[in-house]
Recover the amino acids of this structure.
C-alpha cells in the first residue's frame, strides 16, 4: 500500500474515522494494530523483523536504566546495539559484504567466489532501525528515561505514516506526542489534507513526470549532449520532489490523526553552502548522523589529540575531518548497499571538509574585495554553486555503477542532442513552475493577498489544485525512490 | 465510550466540506469540457476519412489488421505482401480498443468494401480498455458520457487526458522541427511499411524477483466488450474470415498475467456461436521462444504488457503467416 494508492485512501479513511470515536485509553492499541496491519500488508513474514527488535530494544533500555554500574551498563548497551543493528546489516548489507569480500579475496587467492544470498530487503528497515538505535543511545546517555509502556514504544517505532520512509522522529519528541489527548480540530485536519495534496502534487506531477526524461537520459547517455547536464539538474528535483512529497504526505497524515511530526526538508536547493544544504535536506537523518556519529567521533578525536597538533593542524580541525569523513561514508552507505552511494557520501564529506578548511580564507577574500557589500549577488551565486555541486554528486548517486557514472560524465557536451530538446523544454517549464510555487509558499507571510483571500476563493483554489493534480499526474507505477533504503 | 457526538464544534466543518465537494465537482466538469473542446478543435484528424479513401483506392486490400500497440509491433503488412502475396492494411495502434475497431470496420466496409480476412490481435486487458477519444473523433463519434455517473470526469477519463498531454508534447516537438516518437503514431501510410524496432541493449530483466505484482483478467464484456461482439457479428454477416491471434509475450509477462487460462477460455466461449472464427495462440514455448529477450522490446515479471521487437516480429510473422496461409486459398 503506497500513499498514492486507492487502497491506502480507504485504509486511512477507516483509521481516521475510528480514531475519532475510539476511547483515548485504547487509541494506542488501535493505531498499533493499524500500523502492524499496514506493514504486514507488504509482507507478513517481515513483521517479525519489526516486532523482535522493538521488544529487544524495549527490554534492554528498561534493564539499562536499572543498572548503576557503568561497565555493566555499557556492556548491555553494546549488546543492544548489535542486536538492533543485526537485522539491518544482514538483510540490507549481506550481499554487499559478501561481494566486496569476494573481490578483495580474489586479489590474493585464485578462483574464490562467494555466492550472494539474495535476501529480500524489508521496506523501511533503515528508518525504523535508526529510530531504535537513537532511542537506545538516548537512554544509555541518560538523555531520556526509558518508555515503560510497551504499547506506546511499539507504536513510536511502527507508526505507519513514518515507517516506510521516515521522518526519523526522536523518542523524546514523538512518544509524548502519541500520548497527548487531541480534540477534534477541523483546521488541523484541513491543514493535514492540504499538506497531503501538496505531497501528492510533488510526487505524481513533478517527480514522476521528470523521471521519464531522467530515466531515458541515464539509460542512454550517448549522443544526449546538453540533455545530460539538465538530466542531473532534473534528477535533483526528481529526488527532492519524490522524497519531500512522501514526507509531506507522512506529516500530513500524522497531522490528521493529531500528531506533530518533525520537519524533514526546508527548501534545500535555496542553500548557500553545502553545510546549509545538510541542515535543510533530510533533516531527521542529518541531525541523527550529527548527534550519534559526527559529534561523538569529532569530540573523541579532539580529546585524543588534545594538546598535540599533528602537522600543525588544530585538534578541532582533525576532529571535524575525522568525524565528517566517517559520518558521510556511513551516511552514503545507509542509502544503499552499493559503492556509488558510498562515493556520493564521500563527495559530500569532501565538500564539507573543504568548506570548513577554507572558511577563514574565503572570509578574508570577501572582506578584501568588499564582496560582502553585494549580499544579494553573493547569495545568488552561492545558491547556484551549491546547487551545481549537489547536482554533480547526484549523478554518482543515480548511476548504477562507477562505470556508468563515468560514461555519463564523459558524454556531457554543450550540443543539441539527436533526440531533440522538446522534452527538455517541457520539463524545464515544469520545474520553473514548481520553483515559483515553492518561492510563493516560502514567502507566503509577505503576501497579504493570500491572507486576505475570502474563504470561498481559498476553497475554490484548492478544488482547482486537486483537478490540476489529476490532469497532470503521471502513473508510471513509480514507487517512491527512498523505498529502496 | 467516547462517542462522536454531533455538537456545534463538529457541525462547523460540514458546510465547508459540502462547499468544497460542490466546487470540486464544478471545477472537474469545467476543466473536462475545456480539455475536450481543445482536443476536438486542435487535435482531431478531420482529414482522415478523405485521406484514407484516397490512399486505399486501387490498393486492393483483402486483409485488415486490428488491435492495439501489441499488434502494431507484432504484425506487419510488409510480410503479407512478401510471403503471401496479399495486400494487408494495418489499423492497429495504441489506444484503439474494441469500440474504435468496430467503428473502423464499419467505416472501412462502407468506403472500401468487405475484406476477405480480418485479423484481430488479442490483449489480456482488452476488455479493460477505453478507446481514446482522439481516435473516436475520426468517425465523429459522439461519446455518450454519463455526466452524473461519476463524481470526477477527469479521473474517469484520465487515460484520454494523458493522451492529450502526450499529443501536446508531440506538437511541441513538431513545432521545434524535431521528429516525433520512433513509431510515427498517426501517419497511417508510414505504419504500413513499419517493421518494428530493435533497441541497442536488451531492456528486459530476466531475473525473476521473489515478489512481483500479478494482474487479473478483466472479464468480458468489461468496458468495450460489447463492441467486440458486435464486430464479430458484423463479420459473420459479411462472411469475413476472422482470425484472432494471441501475439507472443515475453515469458515473464505471461507469468505476471496469472489468469491467462481464464482469458483463453472466455474468448473460446465468446466465439463458440460463430463458424467463421479461427484462434491462433503463440503464447506457448513450443510455438515461439518466449524466453528469448532479443525478441521483445519490453515485458517481464511484474509487467503486464509486452511487445515484440523487430527481430521477434520477423520470426513471428513468418510462423504466423505460414499457419494462416490456407485461409487465402
Amino acid at each position: 500500500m503506497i500513499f498514492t494508492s486507492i487502497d491506502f485512501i480507504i485504509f486511512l479513511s477507516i483509521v481516521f474515522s475510528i480514531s475519532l470515536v475510539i476511547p483515548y485509553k485504547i487509541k494506542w492499541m488501535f493505531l498499533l494494530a493499524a500500523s502492524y496491519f499496514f506493514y504486514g500488508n507488504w509482507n507478513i513474514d517481515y513483521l517479525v523483523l519489526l516486532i523482535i527488535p522493538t521488544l529487544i530494544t524495549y527490554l534492554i533500555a528498561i534493564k539499562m536504566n536499572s543498572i548503576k554500574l557503568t561497565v555493566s551498563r555499557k556492556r548491555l548497551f553494546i549488546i543492544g546495539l548489535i542486536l538492533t543493528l543485526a537485522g539491518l546489516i544482514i538483510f540490507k548489507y549481506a550481499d554487499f559484504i559478501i561481494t566486496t569480500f569476494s573481490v578483495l579475496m580474489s586479489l590474493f587467492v585464485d578462483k574464490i567466489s562467494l555466492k550472494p544470498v539474495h535476501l529480500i530487503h524489508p521496506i523501511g528497515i533503515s528508518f525504523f532501525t535508526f529510530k531504535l538505535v537513537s532511542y537506545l543511545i538516548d537512554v544509555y546517555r541518560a538523555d531520556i528515561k526509558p518508555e515503560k509502556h510497551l504499547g506506546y514504544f511499539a507504536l513510536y517505532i511502527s507508526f505507519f505514516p513514518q515507517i516506510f520512509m521516515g521522518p526519523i522522529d526522536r523518542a523524546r519528541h514523538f512518544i509524548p506526542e502519541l500520548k497527548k489527548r487531541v480534540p477534534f480540530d477541523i483546521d488541523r485536519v484541513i491543514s493535514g489534507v492540504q499538506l497531503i495534496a501538496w505531497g501528492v502534487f510533488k510526487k505524481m506531477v513533478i517527480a514522476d513526470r521528470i523521471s521519464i526524461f531522467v530515466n531515458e537520459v541515464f539509460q542512454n547517455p550517448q549522443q544526449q549532449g546538453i540533455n545530460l547536464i539538465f538530466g542531473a539538474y532534473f534528477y535533483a528535483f526528481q529526488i527532492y520532489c519524490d522524497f519531500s512529497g512522501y514526507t509531506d504526505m507522512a506529516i500530513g497524515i500524522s497531522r490528521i490523526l493529531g500528531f506533530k511530526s518533525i520537519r524533514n526538508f526546508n527548501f534545500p536547493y535555496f542553500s548557500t553552502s553545502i553545510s546549509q544544504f545538510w541542515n535543510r535536506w533530510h533533516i531527521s537523518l542529518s541531525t541523527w548522523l550529527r548527534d550519534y556519529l559526527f559529534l561523538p567521533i569529532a569530540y573523541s578525536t579532539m580529546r585524543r589529540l588534545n594538546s598535540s597538533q599533528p602537522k600543525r593542524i588544530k585538534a578541532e580541525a582533525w576532529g571535524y575531518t575525522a568525524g565528517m569523513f566517517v559520518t558521510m561514508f556511513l551516511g552514503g552507505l545507509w542509502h544503499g548497499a552499493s559503492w556509488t552511494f558510498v562515493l556520493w557520501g564521500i563527495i559530500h564529506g569532501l565538500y564539507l571538509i573543504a568548506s570548513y578548511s577554507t572558511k577563514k580564507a574565503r572570509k578574508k577574500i570577501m572582506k578584501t574585495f568588499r564582496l560582502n557589500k553585494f549580499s544579494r549577488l553573493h547569495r545568488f551565486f552561492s545558491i547556484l554553486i551549491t546547487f551545481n555541486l549537489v547536482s554533480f554528486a547526484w549523478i554518482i548517486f543515480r548511476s548504477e555503477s562507477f562505470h556508468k557514472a563515468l560514461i555519463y560524465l564523459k558524454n556531457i557536451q554543450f550540443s543539441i542532442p539527436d533526440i531533440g530538446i522538446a522534452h527538455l523544454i517541457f520539463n524545464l517549464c515544469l520545474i520553473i513552475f514548481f520553483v515559483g510555487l515553492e518561492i510563493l509558499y516560502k514567502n507566503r507571510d509577505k503576501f497579504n493577498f493570500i491572507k486576505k483571500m475570502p474563504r470561498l476563493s481559498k476553497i475554490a483554489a484548492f478544488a482547482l489544485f486537486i483537478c490540476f493534480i489529476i490532469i497532470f499526474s503521471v502513473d508510471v507505477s513509480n514507487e517512491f525512490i527512498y523505498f529502496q533504503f | 465510550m467516547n462517542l462522536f457526538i454531533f455538537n456545534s464544534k463538529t457541525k462547523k466543518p460540514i458546510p465547508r466540506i459540502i462547499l468544497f465537494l460542490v466546487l470540486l465537482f464544478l471545477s472537474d466538469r469545467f476543466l473536462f469540457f475545456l480539455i475536450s473542446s481543445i482536443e476536438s478543435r486542435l487535435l482531431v484528424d478531420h482529414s482522415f476519412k478523405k485521406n484514407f479513401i484516397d490512399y486505399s483506392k486501387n490498393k486492393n486490400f483483402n486483409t485488415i489488421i486490428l488491435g492495439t500497440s501489441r499488434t502494431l509491433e507484432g504484425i506487419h503488412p510488409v510480410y503479407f505482401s512478401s510471403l503471401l502475396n496479399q495486400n494487408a492494411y494495418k489499423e492497429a495502434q495504441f489506444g484503439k480498443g474494441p469500440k474504435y475497431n468496430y467503428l473502423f470496420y464499419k467505416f472501412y466496409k462502407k468506403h472500401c468494401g468487405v475484406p476477405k480476412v480480418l485479423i484481430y490481435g488479442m490483449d489480456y486487458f482488452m476488455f479493460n480498455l477505453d478507446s481514446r477519444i482522439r481516435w473516436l473523433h475520426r468517425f465523429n463519434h459522439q461519446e455518450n458520457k454519463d455526466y452524473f455517473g461519476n463524481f470526477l470526469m477527469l479521473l474517469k477519463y484520465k487515460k484520454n487526458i494523458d493522451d492529450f498531454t502526450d499529443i501536446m508534447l508531440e506538437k511541441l516537438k513538431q513545432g521545434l522541427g524535431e521528429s516525433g516518437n520512433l513509431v510515427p503514431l498517426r501517419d497511417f501510410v508510414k505504419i504500413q511499411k513499419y517493421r518494428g524496432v530493435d533497441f541497442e541493449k536488451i531492456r528486459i530483466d530476466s531475473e525473476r524477483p521473489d515478489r512481483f505484482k500479478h494482474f487479473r483478467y478483466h472479464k468480458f464484456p468489461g468496458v468495450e466488450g460489447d463492441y467486440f461482439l458486435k464486430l464479430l457479428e458484423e463479420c459473420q454477416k459479411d462472411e469475413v474470415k476472422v482470425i484472432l491471434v494471441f501475439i507472443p509475450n515475453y515469458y515473464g509477462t505471461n507469468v505476471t498475467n496469472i489468469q491467462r487460462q481464464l482469458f483463453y477460455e472466455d474468448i473460446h466461449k465468446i466465439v463458440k456461436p460463430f463458424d467463421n472464427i479461427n484462434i491462433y495462440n503463440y503464447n506457448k514455448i513450443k510455438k515461439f521462444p518466449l524466453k528469448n529477450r532479443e525478441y521483445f522490446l519490453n515485458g517481464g515479471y511484474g509487467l503486464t504488457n509486452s511487445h515484440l521487437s523487430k527481430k521477434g516480429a520477423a520470426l513471428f510473422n513468418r510462423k504466423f503467416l505460414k499457419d494462416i496461409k490456407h485461409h487465402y486459398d
User: Anything to note?
Assistant: Residues 284-389 of chain A form one domain. Residues 187 and 480 of chain A are 29 Å apart (CA to CA). Chain A has a mean pLDDT of 87. The two ends of chain A are 17 Å apart (CA to CA).
